[in-house]
Specification:
Blueprint: H1 14-29, H2 34-44, H3 50-64, H4 69-76, H5 81-93, H6 96-154, H7 164-194, H8 198-205, H9 209-232, H10 237-244, H11 251-265
Helix pairs in contact: 1-2, 1-6, 2-3, 3-4, 4-5, 5-6, 6-7, 6-9, 7-8, 9-10
Length: about 270
Amino acid sequence: MSSENRIEMGKLTYTELSSFFENMGMMVKSGISVSEAVSLLKEETPESESVLFGTLDHMSDDLSMGYPFGDAMKGTGAFPDYAIDMIGTSEYTGRLETTLFHLSGYYRKENSMKNTLTAAVRYPVILLFMVIAVLIVMLALVFPAFYGVYNNLTGSLTSSAYGYINVSFTLCKVLLVIMIIIVALLLGGVAMWKKGNKETVRSTLSRSASFRRIFDSMDLYRFTSCFDMFLSSGEHQDEALKKSMVVVEGAALKEKLLRCVEKMDSGMSFSQT
């Protein structure tokens, strides 16, 4: 299928990427050619999984016309750039099988981290909704009942010994407003993240030392994993360093890596940089 007539596909999920590379790795290991392996995966994929099926369909067409595996992946628009670079490098060096299993493991871990982060946001939101529900019940049902009882007993709540109920009522209203604002901020952050405004959300959360350490650790993991995979695929250290930078989202680590690239370009070895 020519690039002019190609329909732009969506991005594959981490689960789909991990499964795809694992299945491809197993079939390549058993002696099946890449073109045949993609065709087999296409036959086993239901059309209801539109993104994956469309991706395999496009790849199958390109491979049948003689395109390299990496170019066929690139043509779909469904794969991350560095995965395409790794496949292209491994095809050149003859280490395709190892790279496929590396990529499968990498995306499995990425999916695990994504689920952990999702759970870290989901449970506080659920708890906040529960607190909001309790506060609404308190304000709508419990406090009015107290007011009625105490007014009948004392005639005037504000002039009685039960004036603290007014304080509690006001405190509940303030807490309810605060909880609603927190939930709105969390849901707004999640919506921005899903729409691609990750950098804004990340920079906001990074103002907290705890979140900053989490993001820095994730960046370092992604970089070292990709760097290791590029080296395993037969890439030179300087090129592996440059290509691995695409997965780094944090400015701090990216700045350090850019300094390493500059020093390596000037003739220093990787260990020296």
